[in-house]
Design brief:
Elements: E1 6-10, E2 27-31, E3 35-37, E4 54-56, E5 60-62, E6 70-76, E7 82-88, E8 91-97, E9 108-112, E10 117-121, E11 125-126, E12 139-146, E13 152-158, H1 164-177, E14 182-190, E15 196-204, E16 212-221, E17 224-233, H2 237-250
Parallel strand pairs: 1-2, 2-4, 3-5
Antiparallel strand pairs: 6-7, 7-8, 9-10, 11-12, 12-13, 13-17, 14-15, 15-16, 16-17
């Protein structure tokens, strides 16, 4: 939780505050009454001897034990050994783990509906969808993929005779008339397989840096119009760009 003044203001002596990231505030928590249980939070440091984010007007705040922020990632080596690298504060640990399953960014799977196909990163998996995940009168959802980072790939196919240009312009118009949408870029490119792809990136909704981002690719195959959209937060635009490139290069 990041806010410039006071983020959590306690008036109830029985309140409990757990599992939050409380940092970069003038005061992250102000207690006006009673004893507040604020254990299991991260206070902007892994060793908060006295969190400066706590403002005690009256009563007490219990913050120990607290959460420790850590980062872990895995690298798959040529011999299929997984290299796990973890960072906890200033401490770096490296552990070799054998027999684990992981994916490198170069491993891909293939999506195909019989008329067209494309590759996507191997850490994505098929999810059940209802068809209501997209709001379109001309395009129908035929595939939905997600990964553990919360990124989503939507695969759509036209339900009507709407042309490629009309499909893209329909999205452009919708974003422009939205109070929260913003078009970031549009382009027309031809991939290595000779497929002409209309590209479009735009943001929608959200707050400050937590805006949603959609990178869409429109193209034709066997007379049908398709749209592949990679969705995530604008914060993840580098990850989205890498996924976009894998898809774009492989569409056929």
């Amino acid at each position: 939780m990041i806010w410039p003044i006071v983020w959590i203001w306690i008036y109830n002596p029985t309140d409990t505050i757990h599992f939050n990231r409380i940092a970069q505030n003038t005061y992250g928590l102000r207690n006006d009454i009673g004893d507040v249980n604020a254990t299991n939070n991260w206070w902007g440091t892994n060793n908060p001897s006295n969190p400066h984010d706590v403002w005690i007007v009256s009563g007490n705040v219990k913050y120990n034990p607290w959460l420790v922020l850590s980062v872990n990632w895995w690298v798959k080596l040529k011999n299929n050994t997984i290299l796990k690298i973890g960072i906890v504060g200033a401490l770096v640990s490296v552990v070799l783990i054998s027999g684990c399953t992981s994916y490198s960014i170069n491993e891909t799977k293939t999506f195909s509906d019989g008329d067209m196909s494309f590759n996507y990163p191997a850490d994505f998996y098929n999810v059940t969808y209802s068809g209501n995940e997209i709001d379109s009168s001309t395009m129908g959802l035929i595939g939905m993929l997600e990964n553990k980072d919360g990124l989503t790939i939507y695969v759509c196919k036209n339900k009507t005779g709407t042309s490629l240009a009309e499909t893209k312009e329909g999205t452009v118009s919708s974003v422009k008339t939205s109070s929260t949408g913003k078009i970031l870029s549009t382009s027309t490119e031809t991939n290595p397989n000779g497929v002409v792809v209309e590209k479009m990136s735009y943001t929608e909704g959200g707050f400050l840096i937590f805006k949603g981002r959609r990178d869409s690719m429109y193209f034709q195959s066997n007379g049908d119009v398709y749209a592949i959209t990679v969705y995530g937060l604008d914060l993840d635009k580098k990850k989205l760009s890498n996924i976009d490139n894998i898809i774009f290069q492989s569409i056929k």
